[in-house]
Design goal:
Blueprint lengths: L6 H16 L11 H14 L3 H9 L9 H12 L3 H11 L4
Helix pairs in contact: 1-4, 1-5
Length: 98
């Protein structure tokens, strides 16, 4: 991303790569009280550091690559803020032409 100097191109790349960054997020509805969101973020953070969890993941050959809830939230907000004309340009770039 550091090499992309053009802001519209940077937005397209972020849009196209957002799904890869998010992976398999744990989502909660918007009306959930912030205390519960914080609790869940902390609990998940502890879980992925738990020795038994890590050992089981290793046995199953699972890669555990954590992206924080705050980072996912920031990324979602940035992606949703991308202008429709940039989204249309990205859609054109990835469409298959026969």
């Amino acid at each position: 991303m550091d090499l992309i100097k053009n802001e519209p191109d940077r937005a397209i790349i972020e849009l196209l790569l957002a799904e890869q960054l998010a992976g398999r997020p744990v989502l909660m509805p918007p009306a959930v009280p912030i205390e519960r969101v914080i609790f869940m973020r902390e609990a998940l953070g502890r879980m992925v550091k738990d020795k038994a969890f890590v050992e089981e993941a290793q046995k199953l050959n699972l890669d555990i690559d954590i992206v924080s809830g705050a980072d996912i939230s920031d990324m979602i907000n940035r992606v949703y803020a991308i202008s429709p004309d940039i989204v249309a340009r990205a859609r054109t770039m990835i469409s298959v032409h026969e």
